[in-house]
Design goal:
- The structure holds 2 protein chains of 2 kinds.
- By secondary structure, chain A is mainly alpha-helical.
- Chain A has helices at 2-16, 24-45, 77-94, 102-121, 125-134, 136-146, 151-179, 197-214, 223-230, 233-256, 260-286, 291-312, 315-346, 365-378, 385-398, 402-426, 443-461, 464-467, 471-480; strands spanning 54-62, 67-73, 504-506.
- Chain B has helices spanning 2-7, 11-23, 31-34, 37-61, 89-112, 119-138, 142-160, 167-198, 203-212, 217-234, 242-246, 252-277, 281-303, 308-328, 332-358, 376-389, 396-411, 413-438, 454-476, 488-510, 523-530, 535-580, 588-608, and strands at 67-76, 79-87.
- A two-stranded antiparallel ribbon of chain B has the order 1-2.
- The longest helix of chain B is centred in the C-terminal third of the chain and has 46 residues, at 535-580.
- The chains are: A mainly alpha, B mainly alpha.
- Chains A and B meet through α11, α13, α14, α15 and α16 of A and β1, β2, α7, α8 and α22 of B.
Chain lengths: 507, 612
């Protein structure tokens, strides 16, 4: 069941190395499609009524080490798994066979897919670390082989940072298990509650730094702009869309959920780091002249919202945090994809040289229209998925950290500033007559962007589909936090219903 | 049938939205096959459906208590986001006004944008605005109002940026978006902060809550100030007024809609929020102060503008300022009435000058003149529009201003003076524009300037009819005061101020008594007003500059300090490795020497160490 999500891509990767070079894309796409369908069936079978781990699979592996092959899925991991499957499909679909070594590319992509699914599904700390490390080398290769000019530097930086993050996480997990005297690394067997507070604090800090590198948080972020910008668009989608979510997933799963008592101690600090990330990302993005770098910095800002929401730790804010992870994944993927299209067709990413792409005849009208959608979704315009997540984050965090939440709202205004700069310079303006003979964007090249934009719009209009999976899980997480936040209550006495309904009518 | 129509009133915004979505098919793919026109006709049809639907429902809800419809949207973690729709005479009438004006604007646009290739984009955006505004007036929730306002902000950006090839358009679109967005974000802060206090976003429940609420005055003041920031942006009030002026770079048919009803969205939200705002006297005073500054500032700036669209846009700021004052002194009915009369009158004015702009190749009023003989219909429309906008009986705004002035008569006489002044200055300014365009002798640009074709004249005439008959409509809805309770002193004052304004304007600009072109007595004052109190420059020097500077600094810190430390770490590692490799020389002597030195060092340490 759940193992399929891990092993289908990994065995598929092995299989692809056997098929001929010119069929590799088709084969990879088939596997990604199967994977996506399997994920959808998982959504179908997922029980919305319970907060417990579902569809668990347990296989003894190295019992003497405390390492068991335990998988499970809950409301926190399910949306991220779905995001993973969707984005892997997009990545494979949008990649071209004209790149060098296409077969290797697909093999690595599928390995990453399996690794990420494994990390989200794992119910054992060591197993998590294993899967967490599995995606490191493929991604290093993907940046180093298919990247831009400074790819070696970017790939090495990424490798070192992520390896350090992996080591810190391993240290944290080992320390946690050994100090608490547990004989197993299973999530439900490990609990730091009987440890002294100082030990808990140290362990939590180690883990937070580890996951903070991956997320990334200020000031551990400098691998990000280089890696995102140097990576080819599909790899950037992988990195920003899904990989970054491993960091925030870890913060929720192993920070908030594992250390509920200590969490409230560190949460004010975390919220400050979060809001600094948000402001820093937005401000830095404003002064970039490379649109890809601008989008990369926007990512830092948006992950900051997740941290603020996690720190606030109310039902609403956690829901918003998980929604923000998914929405950020979709929006960032769309933006990176479109930036890739623009770069491929126009030949530059420089704001000073781009102009007038909205021109209906000689420009890239559909691509730039979708760029408007992506940018506005990222800036949090309602009707698109970014708003729903950000709004829940704001509303949820306001009761705990009012000032910080207000600063976050200001930062979302700054987000609008750099996206308006981006759109004004690229889409608006006058097309240069001498250079503007751009190749057509084919339908096949439009499809990924259209799919992503449709998802962004659908989840923005019907956010229930984004949030319904998560709610039971976040409710339990909040209940476990020892704080006594004053929950915000909407006192409406309207009948509670969900999904599409007929309106009720009253005088 | 009636009941079905009534309960499906929520379809009114949906028609337009469907039109907007369907038009998307035309940009630009189908355009190559059919040309751009079908997209426009489709939207016209959809708008007509909305208009008809609203019109049919209006008699059913007249004098009936308000009904509410509820659409569940999202229920998570004890946050209930249900969309409440209020069906009342007021809301339905508002949709009729909006769809009606949009219908006329669209017909006008078919004529005005005859040669344009971007119909699909333009009409779908107009439809988006119509849908948004109808949704705004129908929805009874602050949260959903915020959503609509924010979407309309995006719509403004795209609509102002319609002719995106021109650099002024691009900056205008940017400024419109960012200014409105600033207001929206403050509104969002207010929305977020209000929920824990009131527990609801439903306007009706908010009003009920405000009756008995006991909130810390400081908190309430802050929340209230945040809440009025959104309307300030939408209504182009000082200091967020800049965008409306720059938005004049957009196509004129969208200006018809923008100057009349889009700016009024802010006023609408403000009016719905009035009970909550009334909780804090500071907020109410702020409303009055902002409204007063905008009213006086806007009407004065309008005097010095030479771009014909801008002369009108600043009057919009001034009138919205009057609405702010009305809400600030709790004259809700006067505010609503003023919004309505202003919408119709200003739409007519914009249509009239639009016709002149369309085939005169200039919109500089100093280049025009003498058009009265050539364009009597446009001229008449301008006169009626101007008369409908200022307090001139029996047309609409007179009654709205009268109601406002009447309430100020006994309580705040200085505000009454202000209203009279604004009315007089606006009368002067409209007379000035009329005289410059239609009066005097024809200048070069106005020599060959015939009346426009019927597609623009027809909507203008229909609207003219409505402006003229608005008092009768109001009378039939019992919205006008009876002769007995009319405060004659105030009415006379109002009339006097209008007539003085018009009279002085006519003397200055129509007669030969004053040398043309007319100069202000103080040259600096003229420059100050012509450049909008140098607001754009002030913003550039303050906010834009500081955000730019801070972002440059952050970017520099990121590149050279944060990343610099990381790279320094790498360089140090590599450098030390590179250096240390020379220590591996392969000479036994040096190894022995190292060992001996090391042993001596350790031995020395052990000897000298006090513990041993």
């Amino acid at each position: 069941m759940l193992s399929t999500l891990i092993w289908l891509p990994i065995f598929g990767a092995a299989l692809i190395s056997l098929v001929p070079m010119n069929r590799s894309r088709l084969a990879a796409l088939t596997i990604a499609t199967l994977n996506l369908l399997w994920t959808l069936s998982l959504l179908w079978r997922f029980d919305l009524g319970t907060s417990a781990m579902q569809m668990q699979e347990v296989l003894p592996w190295l019992d003497s080490l405390g390492l068991t092959y335990t998988l499970g899925v809950d409301g926190l991991s399910l949306p991220l798994l779905a995001l993973n499957s969707v984005l892997i499909w997009i990545v494979i679909y949008s990649s071209s066979e004209q790149i060098i070594r296409p077969r290797l590319f697909y093999v690595l992509t599928l390995l990453v897919c399996g690794g990420i699914a494994g990390a989200f599904l794992a119910q054992n700390l060591l197993l998590f670390v294993l899967f967490y490390e599995v995606e490191l080398i493929p991604l290093y290769l993907m940046i180093a082989i298919w990247g831009g000019q400074k790819r070696d530097y970017a790939a090495m930086k990424f490798l070192i940072y992520t390896a350090v993050s992996g080591v810190l996480i391993l240290v944290g997990f080992l320390g946690l298990t050994w100090l608490s005297g547990s004989s197993s690394f299973d999530y439900n067997a490990v609990s730091p509650s009987n440890l002294p507070l100082n030990a808990q604090l140290i362990l939590l800090t180690i883990l937070l730094v580890g996951f903070g590198i991956k997320t990334p948080l200020i000031p551990l972020h400098t691998w990000l702009p280089d890696a995102y910008v140097e990576a080819s668009p599909p790899v950037a989608i992988l990195l920003g869309g899904i990989l970054a979510k491993l960091g925030t997933y870890g913060i929720v799963r192993f920070g908030l959920q594992l250390f509920p008592e200590t969490w409230t101690l560190v949460s004010p600090g975390l919220a400050i780091i979060g809001v600094v990330s948000v402001l820093y990302g937005a401000l830095t993005a404003i002064s970039q002249t490379d649109i890809k770098r601008m989008v990369a910095y926007s990512s830092i800002g948006h992950m900051g919202y997740v941290l603020v929401a996690c720190a606030a730790g109310t039902q609403l804010s956690l829901l918003g945090a998980i929604g923000q992870m998914v929405s950020h994944g979709l929006i960032l993927a769309l933006l990176f994809y479109l930036v890739g299209v623009v770069e491929a067709k126009v030949g530059t990413r420089e704001l000073d040289q781009l102009n007038g792409l909205l021109n209906p005849i000689r420009g890239l009208p559909l691509t730039s229209s979708l760029l408007v959608v992506g940018g506005m979704a990222s800036a949090g315009i309602p009707g698109l998925v970014g708003f729903v997540a950000e709004f829940l984050v704001f509303q949820g965090s306001f009761s705990t950290f009012p000032i910080i939440t207000l600063l976050c709202i200001i930062a979302s205004g700054l987000t609008a500033v750099y996206f308006v700069i981006l759109l004004n310079r690229t889409c608006f303006g006058k097309l240069d007559n001498d250079t503007a003979y751009y190749p057509q964007v084919t339908m096949r090249e439009q499809t990924p962007a259209l799919v992503l934009a449709a998802l962004i719009l659908f989840l923005g209009v019907q956010p229930t589909w984004l949030l319904r999976w998560t709610e039971p899980t976040t409710n339990v997480m909040v209940a476990a936090l020892t704080t006594n936040h004053v929950e915000q209550v909407a006192l409406n006495d309207q009948p509670t219903m969900s999904g599409f309904q007929t309106p009720t009518f009253r005088n | 049938m009636d009941q079905i129509l009534l309960e499906s009133i929520w379809l009114v915004p949906c028609y337009a939205l469907a039109g907007a979505v369907l038009s998307a098919l035309w940009f630009p793919s189908i355009t190559r096959l059919t040309g751009p026109r079908p997209a426009g006709y489709l939207n016209l049809l959809m708008t007509f459906l909305s208009f008809l639907h609203g019109l049919l429902v209006l008699p059913m809800v007249w004098n009936q208590p308000a009904k509410q419809l509820f659409f569940p949207w999202l229920q998570v973690a004890n946050l209930d986001l249900t969309l409440p729709i209020e069906i009342s005479a007021l809301t339905v009438a508002a949709t009729v006004v909006i769809t009606g004006l949009n219908l006329l604007a669209q017909v006008y646009a078919i004529g005005y944008l005859e040669m344009d290739w971007g119909w699909a984009r333009f009409f779908s955006l107009l439809a988006l605005f119509e849908a948004g505004m109808c949704a705004l007036v129908l929805c009874n929730s602050l949260f959903f109002s915020y959503i609509v306002l924010e979407i309309l902000t995006l719509g403004t950006y795209l609509l102002v940026g319609f002719w995106f090839n021109q650099s002024l358009v691009v900056t205008g679109a940017r400024d419109a978006f960012l200014t409105k967005r600033v207001g929206d974000l403050f509104l969002l802060m207010g929305v977020v902060a209000l929920l824990p206090l009131a527990g609801t976003w439903n306007f009706t429940e908010l009003a009920a809550w405000a009756q008995t609420a006991e909130v810390d005055p400081t908190v309430m003041t802050l929340v209230g100030l945040a809440l009025i920031a959104g309307p300030m942006g939408k209504c182009a009030q000082f200091p967020l007024h800049l965008w409306l002026d720059e938005a004049m770079e957009g196509p004129l048919p969208s200006t018809i809609l923008r100057n009349s009803v889009v700016v009024a969205t802010g006023a609408w939200v403000l009016i719905r929020l009035a009970p909550v705002l009334a909780l804090s006297s500071v907020v109410m005073t702020t409303l009055v102060v902002i409204g007063s500054i905008s009213a006086i500032g806007g009407s004065l700036i309008a005097l010095a503008q030479i771009d014909v669209k801008r002369t009108l846009s600043y009057s919009v700021t001034a009138y919205m300022g009057l609405v702010f004052i009305a809400v600030g002194v709790n004259q809700i009915q006067a505010a609503l009435l003023l919004v309505l009369t202003h919408a119709l009158a200003i739409a007519l004015l914009v249509m009239s000058v639009g016709a002149v702009i369309w085939n005169s190749t200039t919109q500089d009023v100093t280049q025009l003149g003498g058009l009265w003989s050539r364009r009597p219909i446009s001229g008449l429309a301008f006169i009626i529009g101007a008369a409908g906008l200022i307090g001139l009986p029996p047309l609409g705004s007179f009654w709205a201003l009268l109601q406002l002035a009447d309430s100020l008569w006994s309580t705040q006489p200085w505000l009454l003076g202000l209203v009279l002044l604004v009315n007089g200055v606006t009368a002067f300014s409209l007379t000035r524009v009329f005289s410059l365009i239609f009066g005097g002798k024809a200048k070069q640009m106005a020599q060959r300037s015939p009346e426009v074709h019927w597609l623009m004249i027809l909507p203008m005439m229909i609207l003219l009819g409505f402006v003229v008959h608005l008092p009768m409509l109001l009378q039939s809805f019992a919205l006008l005061p009876s002769w007995v309770e009319l405060n004659k002193d105030v009415a006379l004052l109002l009339l006097w101020s209008s007539l003085t304004g018009c009279g002085i304007g006519a003397v200055v600009y129509l007669s030969n008594a004053v040398a043309k072109p007319v100069q202000f007595p103080l040259h600096g004052l003229q420059d100050l007003l012509a450049h909008d109190f140098y607001t754009a420059k002030l913003y550039r020097l303050s906010i834009v500059f500081s955000v730019g500077l801070v972002s440059q600094i952050t970017s520099w810190v990121d590149r050279y300090i944060v990343d610099g430390i990381v790279n320094l770490f790498g360089i140090v590692t590599i450098f030390s490795g590179q250096t240390l490799k020379y220590s591996t020389s392969g000479q036994a002597q040096s190894y022995v020497l190292t060992i001996v030195l090391g042993a001596l060092l350790v031995g020395g340490l052990m000897l000298w160490s006090p513990q041993l």
